Amino acid sequence: MALMTWSKQDSVGVRELDDQHEALMRFLNRLHAASMSGKAREVADPVLPRLVKLAAEHFSAEEKLMGSVRFPGLDAHRAKHRELAGKLEEIDSSFKKGDSAVYIQLLHFTRNSLVRHIREEDRQYAQWMSAQGTQS
């Protein structure tokens, strides 16, 4: 069973960003499935660094878009991204040190922070873009 499922309700109306959000969820579901079958370490080894990289690339793309459409909440949104990226890097560092609780920490963090960020905070710029007629 998937930890989280992409739906149209998660869409921000920008294909590139929606694809990135969906990819983040797929990575997390892979890690969750591996964790449930006792294979988290072998799956996390290649997946976690890719997840950290994907999140950083996604945050950058999102901020670039928000800047291009002059989203008034960009600075606050950027600060949230830095907070999320910092937490992912902290989890990655713990993983590299052999912390066995990192999988639960990552899954908890992603479900409670990353997904909430997509569904609530990203929704703000999506709604603003839609109201401005700048959504693609």
Characterise this structure.
There is one protein chain. This protein has about 140 residues and is an all-alpha fold. The chain has helices at about 15-35, 40-70, 75-95, 100-130. The protein has one domain: Four Helix Bundle (Hemerythrin (Met), subunit A), CATH 1.20.120. About 75% of the residues lie in helices and about 0% in strands. Helix 1 (about 15-35) packs antiparallel against helix 4 (about 100-130) and helix 3 packs antiparallel against helix 4.
Topology overview:
Elements: H1 15-36, H2 40-68, H3 74-96, H4 102-132
* The CATH superfamily title: Hemerythrin-like
| Secondary structure tally: strands | 0
Order of helices and strands: HHHH
Named CATH topology:
Four Helix Bundle (Hemerythrin (Met), subunit A)
CATH class: Mainly Alpha
Mean pLDDT: 84
- Biggest sheet record: none
Please give the oligomerization state of what you see: single chain
Give the second-level CATH assignment, the architecture: Up-down Bundle
Approximate strand percentage: under 5%
Report helical residue fraction: over 70%
